[in-house]
Design brief:
Elements lengths: L2 E4 L19 E2 L7 H13 L3 H12 L9 E6 L6 E4 L5 E5 H6 L4 H21 L6 H14 L5 H6 L8 H14 L9 H13 L9
Parallel strand pairs: 3-5
Antiparallel strand pairs: 1-4, 2-3, 4-5
Helix pairs in contact: 1-4, 2-4, 4-5, 5-7, 5-8, 7-8
Length: about 210
Amino acid sequence: IKFDFSCTKAYKREEKFKPLSGHDWLKMNAPSCEENDSACKNMIQKALQVPRVKELRESMKKLGCNTPESFFSCATCENDSVIGGFVHEGRKEVVLCKDNIEKFNIPQDHVDRTMVHELIHAYDHCRADLDWKNCLHIACSEIRAANLSGDCHFKTELNRGNFGFKKQGEECVRRRAELSLKAHPQCKDIAKKAIETVLDSCISDTAPFLFR
């Protein structure tokens, strides 16, 4: 199973990241009867009402990719750098890390952003059948996810301690997309170059949204 990682530590100002591979961050056989599983599922239900989540799901449906409630699940993760991820092989789904959500008291708005972020990857995979071994393909999707999910909203950046104003949004997209791209072992050493190669074209691609 392969994942795309939403690997942010919004609960800390610094943005540290450990490159991951396969499904090392996820315990696939974790029990589903824990209290934090119920809390995580409740947060998913609330996130499903977010306008951008609704729009992404509807757009994917039009493309022939349905995302029923079973498309979204909670699991115990191996690494506290991860809040969620998109599974793009086998049973495709968006997975949230129930243990980290509880451990770090992740708020609903962060879960909402994570859901949008991962659904953008799912949307890109649906519309273009991305090659997840191609670093340029992954880089483009990471740029779009950082740009369109709210990850780089001005207020969110302020909460991280980033106070720049000139092209702050673009710098945030570049920084966070590079961090995520480094999660893919084959892209770790060329992440910066890959992001710069596709940044201009991919940051302007706001599908399925008409506006950012």
